[in-house]
Amino acid sequence: MDRLLHEADRRGLECGQINRVEMETKMTRSFRIVPTIALAAVLLGGAAEAQTIKIGVNEPLTGAFAASGTYVVNGAKIAADEINAKGGILGKKIELVVEDNKSNPTEAAAVAEKLITSDKVPVIMGAWGSSLTLAVMPKLIEYETPMVVETSSSGKITTTGNPYIFRISPPSAVEAAAFKGIVDKLELKKVDFLVINNDWGRGTAEDFSKMMKEKGISVGLVETMDQGAQDMSAQLSKIKNTDSETIIITTAVDQLTLIFKQAAALGFKKRIITTGGSQNPDQIIAQAGAAANGTMHLTTFLPWFPDKTPNPEATNYFIAEWKKRGFDFAGCTESFRGYDGIRTIAAAIEKAGKAEPAAIRAALWDIKVKGLNGDIVFRKSGPEGKESGQSQPNVYLIEISDGKVDMKTL
Amino acid sequence: MSEFLQHLINMLVLGGTYALLGIGLTLIFGIMNVVNFTHGVLYTFGAYIMFIVVHQLGFNFFLALPLAVVAGWLLGAAIELVLLRPLRGSDIDTTMLVMIGAWIAMQSGILWIWGGVAKAIATPFPDAPLVLGPVSVSWLRLFVLGAAALLIVATYLLINRTKLGCAMRATFQDQDTASLMGVNVDLIYTSTFAIGSSLAAAAGALLGPVYVVFPQMGDLAAVKAFAIVILGGLGNITGAVIGGFILALAEELGAGYVSSGYRDAMGFLIIIAVLIFKPTGLFARAERVG
Lengths: 410, 290
Known about the structure:
- The complex is a heterodimer.
- By secondary structure, chain A is α/β, with parallel strands linked by helices.
- Chain A has three domains: 2-43, no CATH class; 52-171 and 309-390, Response regulator (Rossmann fold, 3-Layer(aba) Sandwich); 173-306 and 396-408, 3-Layer(aba) Sandwich (Rossmann fold).
- Helix content of chain A is 48%, strand content 19%.
- Chain A has helices at 2-11, 18-49, 66-85, 105-117, 130-143, 156-159, 172-186, 199-214, 233-240, 253-265, 281-288, 312-324, 332-352, 357-364, and strands at residues 52-59, 93-100, 124-126, 147-149, 165-167, 190-196, 218-225, 246-250, 271-275, 296-299, 369-371, 374-376, 379-381, 388-390, 396-401, 404-408.
- In chain A, α3 (66-85) crosses α13, α7 crosses α8 and α13 crosses α14.
- By secondary structure, chain B is mainly alpha-helical.
- Chain B has one domain (2-216).
- Chain B has eleven helices and two strands; from the N terminus they run ααααββααααααα.
- In chain B, a hairpin with a 2-residue loop joins β1 (130-132) and β2 (135-137).
């Protein structure tokens, strides 16, 4: 009672308001329990979380590349579940921390920062697009965290001296080199380019132009389109009136579908070849219909012909699991990258013996994983002392005819 | 020359839908003095209604279109009643903030319900285009042009030949006098917002099948709508129609002859140019509706 009087006095309250002080003291006492419980929960929860190994996944789930990013994440989840079913790595389950970079380079960098500093992931897979990956790269150096690049194809990623980058997808120069063989068979004379206006598209136009000129093929127009553009009729009308017989298109599946439909509406008659591996041909066939027939595509996976892939057993497992989860088969051409990316990271963590960035980075140089598109072994690429890792995946050429996919020998 | 003709055809088709977007926004801006940031989301909403009706409910494509317009009308009326009416007396900044909040909330809602992956809407038109000499145009785009023209004419008649339209124009000129004359200003405001929103939804429903449908599709459309409204003058419907075609022309010719990468920037460039040289718009004889 004295205490209450003292408190009332201190607060300058009138007589009869001691009840208020009493009630408030009771309330503050019970309120003190709440933060204590919360703190205990966080500590216990934190302890529970230390039982999993986190892997950051930085992919576009909304925006221009949402379709592709979603496929990759679903492929990654298949890998994570497969590994966890076999007991996880180093006795712990792996946990994918998936964040959406909104197909935007600024967001990609912010997401990477969040994954590293807030979620404390020791390794990341991402960020799908070349411009997105390039935006993330400075953060990797800053926080000394390695990242496995699963889709991006700009040459700059592995040649600017970032020792935290390990790429399993082919750079566009490798695509161009693989395409060299077919150029004679197709009897190309003059080509135009229609590419997405970012590092991926412009890099492809550069690398392919260089290869074409070496082979004596002339390069006509190089038209670009913004990643969010929906109407490419102007560019297509322009190209329709040139004297080239082939057009090379580089962009992701949603824009490709629009281009094919608009090209058909314009009565576009030239041969169409697409690059980049993000075409998801089945989706194009489903959404562009007859407009897709006669088009050719450079891809990095052959889910239609599992026996022709370097690792038929794993391919069949992956495709079966993909179908079991009810996903659209069209996504296989990209989702396998998420699958291979996570398996690569898991192998590195296993080899490193601990889930720490520096150890994982060192281990990535030593692993060999049987990927769905060839063996994943990282070779040095880029300036001396700061080399990035680059693996050598296969590139295939397919053609869509009569609503079906055929393989063409390169 | 044939390339130019092709650009012209493309321009006509696009211009019609841009005109719809512009009319909707200019009505709201002109009559209600509200900066309607939800216009783009109504456009997106119209496209998603088409998607639901055609793909998830299995209705006829041509039936889906009026349904989308009606849905836009209802949503617009709801927004006005719930958000704008309580704010009737407040300053323009408060209303703007509320509209921005509504925009974010609705766009996130769409993202949450249908996900971020783009959807394609199947149409009953043949894939092969109509070929007229050196130019080709797809049947779908011709339909879009026709439907847009119909809606523009209908709106014009509504504003200029009906009692409701007369009341709207009166309210625009002088709200207090109109009220004294017996015009139910509350009803006019709700109707205006509803009509403007239904036009945005119509534009979305028409362009959804032409392109693809995704949650952020309205953002760029809203910017273009503002460009058209600035071009044509606030509240000026004829100005908005002509402005829509001018924007489409600038985009087509800019992308075709200047630089293809800057297609969507044309809208911004037009806003800048008009604001510098003729801030009241190209066609503002006076600020009036009609």
